[in-house]
Amino acid sequence: MATTLADDLRPLHHPHSWVTRYIWSQDHKVIAIQYSCTAIAIGLVALVLSALMRLQLGFPGAFPAITPDNYLQFVSMHGMIMVVYLLTALLLGGFGNYLIPLMIGARDMVFPFVNMLSYWFYLLSVIVLVAGFFVPGGPTGAGWTLYPPQAISEGTPGHQWGIVTMLVSLAIFVAAFTMGGLNYVTTVLQARTRGMTLMRMPLSVWGIFTASVMGLLAFPALFVAAIMMLFDHLAGTSFFMPTMQSAGAITSTQGGSPLLFQHLFWFFGHPEVYIVALPAFGIVSDLVSVHARRNIFGYRMMVWAIVIIGALSFLVWAHHMYVSGMNPYFGFFFATSTLIIAIPTAIKVYNWMLTLWRGNIHMRVPMLFAIAFIFTFIHGGLSGLFLGNVSVDVPLSDTFFVVAHFHMVMGVSPVLVIFGAIYHWYPKITGRMWNETLGKLHFWITFLGVYAIFLPMHYLGILGVPRRYYALGQADFIPPSVHLANQWISIAALAVFAAQSLFFFNMIWSLFRGPKADPNPWGAASLEWQTPQTPPAHGNWGPKLPIVYRWAYDYSVPGAERDFIPQTEPRA
Amino acid sequence: MNLIARLSERSWEPASDRLDLSHRPSAGAVGLAAYAAVMAVMFSLVMVAYVMRMGLHAAMGHADDWVAMPHPPLLWINSAVLVMSSVAWEVARRAAERGEASRAPLLGGALGLCFLGGQWLLWRHYQAAGYYLASNPANAFFYLLTALHGVHIAGGLVAAAWVLASRTLPHVRLCALYWHLLLLIWMAIAVLLLLT
Amino acid sequence: MPIAVAIAVLVFGSVAFHLLSPWWRTPIASNWGSIDSALDVTLWICAAAFVLLNLFLAWALVRYRHRPGHHAHYEPENSRLEKRLTFWTAIGIAGMLAPGLAAWGKFVSVPKDATIIEAVGQQWQWSFRYPGPDGVLGAAAVKYVTPDNVLGLDPLDPYGRDDLLIETGDLHLPLGKPVKILLRSKDVLHDFYVPEFRAKMDLVPGIVTYFWMTPTKTGTFDILCAELCGTGHHQMRGKVVVETPKAFAAWQAQQSSFGQILAEAPPAAMSILLIKANACTVPASWSIR
C-alpha cells in the first residue's frame, strides 16, 4: 500500500546550523533532551537540599550553619522543585516530548515552534526559581504548599522576595507547561499515523496524554492562586489575607480567606499527583510488557483505569484539607471519592502483576526498576488509604506518616520509573549501551536504600512525630529511639544520595565509550524502536511515515517466528 | 465510530484496522479547543473564588468586607464594542468561507483594540473615583478578571495581525472562533459583575 | 532471582519491623478510640493486601523467569478475572471506608453538653480562654488586640468580662467531660495537636475552627503545632493537664478573668483598648454560647 500522507509533503523545519539544531531547535527529540537535562540539573539541586535536611534531622546541632530558617527553605524548595520542576517537567516535557511523536508515528509535535517556546519558558522559570536563592532573605520557607498568610507574612523565611520569585517562576512554568501540554494533547489527537487507532497506542502515550489533559485543566488553578497571592503581597489586596497580627501590629488587610487559597492550591495539587503518576503508570506498563515478553494484561482496562483515575482526581482535592478547618461535612464526600480512586489504581497494579504472571521475564536493569516500582507503589498506595480515610487521617496528618506516604508514592515510585525508562530508552536516544554492572549496583543501592529511609518514617508518623520540624526537641511522647531512627534514616539517605553518582557516571561515560547499541535491543514491538536510524534522525521516519497494522503488545504471539511482532508488520 | 466504541475496541484483533485519516480536524482547531478548555477552567476558577470570597465565607464568621462596585456606562459601551468586534470576525469568516476578500478582519481587529482602550479608560475611571485595587476585594477581583481577559484579547490581537498578514481560511476561522470564545468569557464576567 | 528474594525479604522484614519496632501509637487519652480502631481495620486490610500482592509478585518472578525453552503465554485480557479482582477490591475498600466514615460521623457531631474552651495560637505560643461562670465566650477578634488585651477580647462585650484568660500557662481540662475546643489564630495557620488525644485541627486566622473530645486519662501532655507557621514552628509548645473535675475547679478558681485584668489596667492602656473597640467599622463578630 504505497501511500503518501499530506504530512509527508509538509516542509519540515530543517536545521541549518549547529545553533538551530541544538539550541533553538524545534525538533521534539532535542527539546526533550533539553527539558530532561534542565529538569535533572534542577532536580540535583533539590537532591542536595534533601541531603542537607537529613543532616539536620539526623544530627541536630551538629551543623550550626543550618538555621531553622534555612531548614524550612530547604524543605520548601526541595518539595516544589521535585514535584513541579523535576517530575512534571521530566515526565511530560522530557519523556512526553521524546516518546509521543515516535510512539504514534509522527514526524514531530504539531506546533514545533510553540514546543520550542515551551522549553525556553521552562528554562526561564527555572532561572527565576534559582534566583530565589540569591535575593535578600533567601528563598521562601513556607513549605511547598505556600499557604498564606504565612508565605507572605513576618516570621516566615523568604517572605519578602523569595516568595515573589517562587510565584513568578510558577506562573512562568504554567505558561510553559500550557504550551507544551497543548502540543502533547493535539499531537496525540491529531497526528497519529495511519492505522494508529487510539487503542493501539502504547500505554506510555496514554499515561502522558491523560496527564497532559489533566495538567491543562489543573495548572490554571495554581496560576490564578499564584497571581492572587502576588497581588496580596505586592499590591496589598486581601484575597487570602485576613486581619492578623504581624510583627506586633495589626495588618491593614481584612477578610481574606486562607482556605480559599488551599482549595485553589489543592485543586491543582491533587491532580498534580496523578500528572506525575499517570506517565509513570504508562511507562512502567510498557517496561513490564517488553521485558516479560508478554502482552500487557487487560490493555483496555488499563486505558480505562488511566482515564477514570484522571477524571476522579479532580474530585478528591479536599482530602488534603480534612483538618484544615473547612466545613467538616465535606469529609464524607472526599473520603468516599478518594477511596473509590483506589479501585482503578489497584486494577493497574493487578494487571502489571498479571503481565508478569505466565511471562518470560528477562531481569534486565529497566525491568528491575519496574519491579521495584510495583513494590514501592503498592506500599505507597496502601499507606494513602490511611490518609484518605478521613478519620484515620486526623491523627496522621502533618506527621512523618504523610512524608513517608507521599515520598513512597510520588517521590520514589515515579523516580524509579524514570530511572527504568532512561535505562530502557537510552540505547534509542544515544545509540549506545550503558554498563550493566554499574546499572545493577545503582539499582540495588537505590531500591533498598529508599525503603530503609521511608519504611521507618511511617512508624514515626504513627507515633505522632510532626513533620517540618527543624528539631524535635523535648516531648514526653518521643522516646530517644526516635533520634536513633533519624540518624539511621539520614545515613541511608546519604548512601542513596551518593549512589546516584553511579548513574550519572554510567550515563555520561556510556555516551562516549559505551558499545554501539542495537536499534531494537529489547525486541520491542512499539513504533519508536522501528525508526530507520538510531538515534532517530530529524523527521523520525525517513521519506515515508510508518503504517501501523497491530497494537503495541504483540509479544509471544502463538505461531509467530519471533517472540515479538513490530506494529509496522502487516497481518498475514 | 463514536468515542465509546473507539475506546472499547479490542485492538489486538484484526477487525481494528482503520487506515483512513480523512475525517481528522486540523491541528489548529484541536489546539484551540484544548486552549478553550484551559481558559474556561481558569476564568471559572477565578469566578468561583469571587463568589466564595464575596459571601459564602460569611457563614463561617469571615468579616463581611465586600463592597460592590458601581457599573458605569462605559462597562456597557465596552461590552457592545466587543460584541461588534465578534460580529465583524464572523462576517470575515463567512466571507473567507465563500472565498471573498473582505475588510472585516481589519474592522474586527480595530474594534478589539478599541475594547482594550475602553477597558483602560474604565480602569482610569474607577481609579479616579477611588476604587483602588487594594481598597476592597470586589475591586481586586474586578481588576484581576479584566486584566486576565485583557491579556487574552491582546493575544488575540497578535493572532489578528497574523491573520491580516496571511489571510488564509483556516487562520480566519480560528481567529473568529477565538474571538467568540473571548466574548463568551467576557459576557460571563460582565454578568457576574452586574449581578453582584 | 535476587529481586524476588529481595521482595520476599522486604515483605517479611516489614512485618517483622511492624511487630518489633518500638514506635507505635501513644497510649490514647481521649474518647477517640473509634479513630484508632478505624486505623486498625485499615491497617489489617492493607497489610493483607501488601503481603499477598508482593508474595505473588516474588513467586511470579521466580516461576516465570526467563530460561531456555520457556515461552510467555499470549492472553490480551481475561475480563472474568479482572471483574472478580475489581469486586474484591471494592469490598476491601468498603470495609475500611465504613469504620472511617463512622468515626468521622462522631467527630463532626459535637455533644450538646460539651463545655467550650478556646485555644488561641500566635507565633509561636499557645494561650487559652475559659468562658467563666456564664458559660459564654465573649466576642473577640484580632483587631481588638492591645498589649493589655493580648487575646483581643471585645472590651464592650459583657459576656467577655468573666472569661478566664490563660496567656502563658497550661491548658487544664476536667477528666471525663466532653469539651469543644474552639481554635482561633492571631496571625498565621497553626494546628492544635496533642498526639494522645488523636484529634487535631488547624487554626485559621479570620475564622474560628473547632473539634471536640473527652479526656479519658489524667496526666500532662504536650501540645504541639502541626501546621507550618514559620521559623519557630518546632518550638511552639504548650502543655495540657487533664485532672479530676475537683482539681480542675480548684485550679479554675485561681485564674484571673478579663474583668479583673481590665480593672488592673492603667487608664492610658484602657483608653487605647477602647479606641480599638470603637474604631472598628466592621460589625463586631460573635459571642459564642
Shape of chain C: elongated
Quaternary structure of the protein: heterotrimer
Secondary-structure-based class of chain B equals mainly alpha
User: What is the domain total for the residues of chain B?
Assistant: 1
Q: Helix and strand succession of chain B?
A: HHHHHH
Q: What would your notes on this structure say?
A:
The complex is a heterotrimer of chains A (572), B (196) and C (289). With 572 residues, chain A is mainly alpha-helical. Chain A has 15 helices and two strands. In chain A, helix 8 (258-291) packs parallel to helix 10 (330-356). The model of chain A is unreliable at 1-11 (pLDDT under 50). With 196 residues, chain B is mainly α. By secondary structure, chain C is α+β, with helices and mostly antiparallel strands. Chain C has two domains: 2-66 and 77-108, no CATH class; 115-279, Immunoglobulin-like, CATH 2.60.40.420. Chain C is 38% helix and 19% strand.
Outline:
By secondary structure, chain B is an all-alpha fold.
Brief descriptors of the model:
heterotrimer, B: 196 residues, mainly alpha, Four Helix Bundle (Hemerythrin (Met), subunit A), 6 helices, flat, C: 289 residues, alpha+beta, Immunoglobulin-like, five-stranded mixed beta sheet, 19% strand
List the helices and strands and how they pair.
The complex is a heterotrimer of chains A (572), B (196) and C (289).
Chain A: H1 6-9, H2 18-22, H3 28-58, H4 68-104, H5 112-131, H6 162-190, H7 203-235, E1 245-246, E2 249-250, H8 258-291, H9 299-312, H10 330-356, H11 365-388, H12 393-396, H13 400-430, H14 436-463, H15 480-513
Antiparallel strand pairs in A: 1-2
Helix pairs in contact in A: 3-4, 3-5, 3-15, 4-6, 4-7, 4-8, 4-13, 5-6, 6-7, 7-8, 7-9, 8-10, 8-11, 8-13, 9-10, 10-11, 11-13, 11-14, 13-14, 14-15
Chain B: H1 3-7, H2 27-54, H3 73-97, H4 104-128, H5 137-166, H6 169-195
Helix pairs in contact in B: 2-5, 2-6, 3-4, 3-6, 4-5, 5-6
Chain C: H1 2-20, H2 33-63, H3 79-108, E1 115-122, E2 125-130, E3 164-166, E4 171-174, E5 179-185, E6 190-193, E7 200-203, E8 209-213, E9 219-225, E10 238-243, H4 245-253, H5 258-264, H6 267-279
Parallel strand pairs in C: 1-5, 4-10
Antiparallel strand pairs in C: 1-2, 2-3, 5-8, 6-7, 6-9, 9-10
Helix pairs in contact in C: 1-2, 2-3
